[in-house]
Amino acid sequence: MSVDIDWNNLGFDYMQLPYRYVAHWKDGAWDEGTLSTDPNLTLNEGSPILHYGQGAFEGLKAYRTKSGKIQLFRPDQNAHRLHNSAEKLLMPPFPEDRFVNAVKQVVAANHEYVPPYGTGATLYLRPMLIGVGPNIGVAPAKEYIFDVFAMPVGPYFKGGMVPTKFIVADQHDRAAHYGTGQAKVGGNYAASLQAGKFAHEHGYGDAIYLDPIEHKYIEEVGSANFFGISKDGKTLKTPKSPSILPSITKYSILTLAHDRFGMKTEETKIAITDLDQFGEAGACGTAAVITPIASITYHGHEHVFYSETEVGPYTKKIYDELTGIQFGDVPAPEGWIVDVPVN
């Protein structure tokens, strides 16, 4: 590889790469779309994305395998989730097959920036769909932009997986039931900044959100989904709620836990006062894959799970299986991996 980058010391930061994909929707149809070398988008000052948050995005990664080939992990699921987010915000969905093709084009065009196997680093992709054009009333935009850009990022855990402490943000809600919680939209993340800042300033990895109606049940861990594993390692549970983003990583974990490790899996309400049922717990998402939860503090009481310093064996087993699939070291379930040809 000819790109001069210190692959072993990458953070999770923006980096301008040579190519991105851009398509426009106008007069009722998407144009053909194209690769672009311009990292800037020109928006009218009345664009609904700026005033009313009419926009959604995705996050996924490209991985280099030991043999040197490049592969994507379940991009069809990101395409489908963006489709659902678009419908929630009354935006024209970008066709799902074209979404996958656009991502492949961006990866192939920037293939020199896909980090080498063994560094733990990946190529992170950010597809987004935004409402643009002159508009000032509270109404859907008349024009839209679909954009996919990428950057190499380092492994989320420097020095390996380290259990992290979290605190319950019982004075904050991330999203409302039947609102935009199940869509990947910017407003959900803006709503998390205040609680996240408080958690970080007090020595916690992030805030845990409870359901917005009763404030009794776990919803999300920062911008990640929660899971808990029973003390005997036979059951894995995740929260069920209409305001939780359906994490692709979470559903992959549920599948692997059940199909490969024989665990019982369940999406159900998980009360914040019922943490004793779990021997291990974690947060899962694209960036970190799995963040082991060392403890959760609620109303001044700290509940410790497996260990404050060591990763639990069941969490580690699932993490190794999932990352093994992503980097091509473990056979993947059918349809989970998409190869990216590079000319």
| Domain tally | 2
Any idea what the radius of gyration is? 20 Å
Strand content: 25-35%
**Overall pLDDT:** 96
Number of DSSP strands? 18
- Helical region count? 7
CATH superfamily caption of the largest domain: D-amino Acid Aminotransferase, subunit A, domain 2
Strand count, sense and barrel status of the largest sheet are: 9 strands, antiparallel
CATH class of the largest domain: Alpha Beta
The coarse silhouette is globular
Helix content: 10-25%
How far the N terminus sits from the C terminus, by CA atoms, comes to: 14 Å
Going by CATH, the architecture of the largest domain would be Alpha-Beta Barrel
Q: Any idea of the CATH topology of the largest domain?
A: D-amino Acid Aminotransferase, Chain A, domain 2
Show unreliable segments: none
Class per helix and strand makeup = alpha+beta
Helix/strand order, N-terminal first: EEEHEEEHHEEEHHEEEEHEEEEHE
Outline of the structure:
Helix content is 21%, strand content 30%.
Overview of the molecule:
With 343 residues, this protein is α+β, with helices and mostly antiparallel strands. The protein has helices at residues 48-51, 75-88, 96-109, 186-190, 193-201, 248-259, 313-326; strands spanning 20-26, 29-30, 34-36, 55-57, 60-64, 70-73, 122-132, 143-153, 164-168, 206-210, 218-221, 224-230, 235-239, 264-268, 278-285, 289-298, 301-304, 337-339. The chain folds into two domains: 20-153, D-amino Acid Aminotransferase, Chain A, domain 1; 164-326, D-amino Acid Aminotransferase, Chain A, domain 2, CATH 3.20.10. 21% of the residues lie in helices and 30% in strands. The strands form two sheets. Strands 1, 2, 3, 4, 5, 6, 7, 8 and 18 form a nine-stranded antiparallel sheet that branches. A six-stranded mixed barrel has the order 9-10-11-12-15-16. A hairpin with a 3-residue loop joins strand 15 and strand 16. It is globular. The mean pLDDT is 96.
